[in-house]
Amino acid sequence: MQGPRLSGEHSPTAIDVAQLRALDHAASALWPDDPLRTAQARAGLRLLGGCGLRVAELATAELADLRATSEGPVLHVHGKRGRRRTVPVPASVHQAVLELHSLLEARARPLVPALSGHKPARPLGRPVAVRTTQALVARLAQEANQAAGAELPVDVAHPHALRHGYALRYLAQPGATLAVLQRRLGHTDIATTAKYLAAHQDTLEAAPVDPWAP
């Protein structure tokens, strides 16, 4: 399935909160006997959808980039062209990362480590690859569609739709500004942020900052 791309006046489709939760549930349904693979899938999904990361940024993130602050956990993101930014990490995202690392036999440097193809999976000494994450989101979407049917279609199986959904949820919050969103997304030009969301400015709906909060 071709992923969404920004081009001209077109903006990518966003995955909404209900769809995010369906994708999260799909991870457990796909690998009920492989807790490590389930935890990896859930951590990757939540970092993309809950922190607005690009898929390449997920691949370069390290556990040491996750920091505790007085206002809650944050992630130092390695962005495009070596630019760095800091984004808040929702509680459910932080929990998913901690659960993933609690299942590893040894401390791992990557925030989301790659796994072997064994059953059950075993951690490898490298970060999860971009193509692996893209394939994962597509597979989770397929499982969610089969489980939920037409009532909950998840038809945009690409990590960028998770990032776009994050942006829309942020803008729906009271006091949200394009300037803050620009910094969180790592855009160099605020015009990029404005264009990115122009198609949805009249249809924003209230949504939780943390899509997986109880």
Descriptive labels:
disordered N terminus; 9% strand; 214 residues; mainly alpha; 45% helix; globular; 3-stranded antiparallel beta sheet; two-stranded antiparallel ribbon; hpI Integrase, Chain A
SS elements, strand count: 5
The CATH homologous superfamily is called: Intergrase catalytic core
Strand order of the largest sheet: 1-2-3
Share of helix, binned = 40-55%
CATH topology: hpI Integrase, Chain A
Question: What is the CATH architecture term?
Answer: Orthogonal Bundle
Describe the main β-sheet briefly.
Answer: 3 strands, antiparallel
Instruction: Sum up the overall morphology in one term.
Output: globular
The N- to C-terminal Cα distance equals 32 Å
Q: Give the class-level CATH name.
A: Mainly Alpha
Quaternary structure annotation = single chain
- Computed Rg: 16 Å
Q: Which whole number gives the mean pLDDT?
A: 87
Question: N-to-C SSE series?
Answer: HHHEEEHEEHHHH
Q: What's a quick, concise take on this entry?
A:
By secondary structure, the protein is mainly α. It has eight helices and five strands. Strand 1 and strand 2 form a beta hairpin.
Describe the structure.
This protein has eight helices and five strands; from the N terminus they run H-H-H-E-E-E-H-E-E-H-H-H-H. Helix 2 packs antiparallel against helix 4 (91-102), helix 2 packs across helix 6 (159-171) and helix 7 (178-185) crosses helix 8 (190-197). A hairpin with a 6-residue loop joins strand 1 and strand 2 (74-78). The longest helix has 19 residues, at 130-148. By secondary structure, the protein is mainly α. It has helices at 17-30, 35-51, 55-60, 91-102, 130-148, 159-171, 178-185, 190-197; strands at 66-67, 74-78, 84-88, 113-115, 123-127. It has a single domain (17-200), classed as hpI Integrase, Chain A, CATH 1.10.443.10. 35% of the residues are buried. The two termini are 32 Å apart.
